[in-house]
Amino acid sequence: MYINPNWRILTIGDGDLSFSNALLQHYAPTHLTATIYDPLTTLENKYGDDFYQKLLANHCQVLTGFDITKPETWSEINRHSFDLVIFQFPLVPGFTSKAEFNDKCAGIGINTLNRRLLRQFLINSSEQLLDPTGPQLCYITSKDVKPYSEWNIQHSLIRNTDIYFLGEMNFDIANFPGYRIRNVDRDKHVKDTKGITYVWSPRPTNQLALALRAQLTPSTILGDDCCHCCQAGPFTSAQHKESHENSRKHLRMKDFEQQWLDDLQAT
């Protein structure tokens, strides 16, 4: 992950605040605002408030109860004032009851809910949080394992928007000493599997700073001999293509993609 210390940075949904603390300690950005989804009492009960207190002691703004999908929770933040907004390993929280599951997932699946969350993050960050005179960057760090790998992050989130997907880069947790990747619902660490940071901006790639552009792997352009929803191919023969299209993985991804397209059309 490329970080320019001159940037004004906003972190979204940073669980126990260990990522924000590592970012502040080891990169010392010009400005950092850290946010968490939970209220302060939940943070204290779930993770403790060590990192919260460290950030405050270093004069870092920390906002609790911050929901990136609900601007009414942003009352304490200065809009259009950030160069980079970061969302680390986002995942819709688990449901506490069957009734809540039925309410939130009525007619759609968890896959679509997660895509909704990430799309809203990109749209709200681009339209309301990023300074239009700055580099205007959004980072999402995710994993190449289920369920993350089933969201088609590179291609599905920005349909019918003015946001560009610029590429991806490796996320090395060793560059953020003290960062603990947490389970979204519990006080447990999750396995430090390989992370990938995906990058978007309202600005096209050719307006990126060279230092960032040099670290990005651009999106692969898939031809007609590839599967766009699975990011597979090119296929070497009609039989190869047919075999893929009949596979369980493809049928599952095709179903996810259709659910997502239906949801976009409905909203």
Explain what this protein looks like in three dimensions.
Mean pLDDT is 89; it is low at 186-190. By secondary structure, the protein is α/β, with parallel strands linked by helices. It has 2 domains: 8-219, Rossmann fold, CATH 3.40.50.150; 221-267. The relative contact order is 0.14. Strands 3-2-1-4-5-7-6 form a 7-stranded mixed beta sheet, sandwiched between helices. α1 (18-27) packs parallel to α3 (50-57). β1 (8-12), α1 and β2 form a beta-alpha-beta unit. The protein is globular, with a radius of gyration of 19 Å. The protein has 9 helices and 7 strands, in the order βαβααββααβαββααα. The protein has helices spanning 18-27, 40-46, 50-57, 98-104, 110-129, 153-156, 210-213, 238-245, 248-266; strands at residues 8-12, 31-35, 61-63, 84-88, 137-143, 164-171, 195-201.
